[in-house]
Fold this sequence. Notes:
This protein has 244 residues and is of the alpha/beta class. It is 38% helix and 23% strand. The strands form two sheets. It has a five-stranded mixed sheet. Strands 7-6-8-10-9 form a five-stranded mixed sheet, with helices on both faces. The N and C termini lie far apart (47 Å). Pfam families: Inositol_P.
Amino acid sequence: MTDAELARDVADEAGRLLLAIRAEGCETGKALGVRGDAEANALILARLALARPDDAVLSEEASDDRVRCAAPRVWIVDPLDGTREYAEGREDWAVHVALAVDRVPLIGAVALPAQGVTFDSGQRFESIATPRRPRMVVSRTRPPEAAMTVARALDAELIPMGSAGAKAMAVVDGRADIYLHSGGQYEWDNCAPAAVAIAAGLSATRLDGAPLVYNCEDPMLPDLLICRAELRDVVLGILAATPA
Length: 244
C-alpha cells in the first residue's frame, strides 16, 4: 500500500467511526466532540503504528513527542477537524491524515465523511476555470480581517463554511477559488489540506508567499492561503499593500 493509499484508507476508516458514534445518539454537544476526537485519534494512531512503525506522528489529540523533529517522515493528523460542526450535526467537518517528508507536505487525505467524499494527493484532478467573480470560503463564525480585505478588493462572493479541511476542499473541487486564513492554526489544521491542494495544482503558501513548512518544533502555523494559481499573485499583492 502506498503512502497516499494508506492516508486515504485511514482517513476513511476514522470517518466511518465518527459517523457511527454520532449516529448512536449517546452523547451530544461537547461530550460528543470529545468522544469523537479521542476514538478517531486512537484508531488513526493504531493504524499508522501498524503500517508505518518507523515513522513519527504529530496529532492534535496526542502528546507531542519532540523526537519527531529529527525524523524525516512525520504523519500529521487531525482526527476531527471541525469539532463544533460535528457536534452540531453539520456536514462541514473533516478528518486529516498527512505525511510530511523533510518538512514538505507530500502526502495528504482529507475525508469529509458526512458528505461522502474523500480527497487525496494521489488522485487525478480535473482543471477548473476560475469564474469572473472569485468565490472565497470564510469561517461561518469569525472570518479573519485579512480575508475580508481581500474579498472587498476582489468583490469576491463569500461562502461561509466550517472546518479548515472543508473550506480547503471547496477550492479543490471548484466550489470556491480562495481560502485564506489568519489568526492561528496548527500544522494538523492544514498539512493534509495543503498536500491535497498542491497535488490538485493549486497554490498553497503562507500569507507572505513563503512556503508551508511542517514538522517544526513549535507546530503553530498561523496563516495560510490556498487558491487557484492564477489568483496567487493578485491576493498576495493585496495583502502586501494592506497596512499592518
